[in-house]
Amino acid sequence: ADLGEVEARVSVCAACPRLVRWREDAAREKRASFADQPYWGRPIPGWGDPEPQILVVGLAPAAHGGNRTGRVFTGDPSGDWLFASLHRVGLAIQETSRHAGDGQRLVGTRMVARVRCAPPENKPTPAERDACAPWIQREVALLLPTVRVVVALGAFGWGGALEALDGAGVAVPHPGPKFGHGVEVEMSGPAGPVTLVGCFHPSPHNTYTRRLTAEMTDEVFLRARALADL
Ligand code: SF4
């Protein structure tokens, strides 16, 4: 399979009944402020450079963010924070990511969610997490020839990244290294070294409380950029 085929296939996945209901209900009952917009209401494929040096791994789409716009991290507060940082460090050509036709483009970077459907309260069940694992694994395996750095957002993204890298033939240590902001793990992969970098998730909870500041976010992506030689 190639990346386009994986994107097409994941877009129609219906393996998790609770999430299928949730994503479709959110689309049907879309907020009045989105009433005039097309509403995706399906799984969210990876997005960005098809041959990236940097891969960003998030948790899952937001109900009225990616689930609405059809593009990962697009149209919700976490995405606003993330894209602003990527723009400041030169990895995104615009500072905002509002909708699929806004002209935004990532530079040498691709983003994926570990779980591809919006879960209630941003909490997939362990069974849903495991059901979705093959999607990120397929994508990471296809991207590994070029990926040098994986930035994991939060412990959930970190776990998904380690699992997917392991499945794609990267020498992941067992037991897996612990997540932390700024933690780096260099591993050898089939096409050269791959460094996993941890970053607190840019959720409103973390950014409003200043657990994650703009400076801390920029530092991680500047480091990723340097590691990726971009
Ligand atoms: Fe399919 Fe993943 Fe969505 Fe479950 S979460 S329905 S496995 S795309």
From TrEMBL:
Residues 45-221 form the Uracil-DNA glycosylase-like domain. The keyword NAD does not apply. The keyword Cytoplasm does not apply. It comes from the Bacteria. Keywords: 4Fe-4S, DNA damage, DNA repair, Hydrolase, Iron, Iron-sulfur, Metal-binding. Belongs to the uracil-DNA glycosylase (UDG) superfamily. Type 5 (UDGb) family. This is Type-5 uracil-DNA glycosylase. It comes from Nocardioides malaquae.
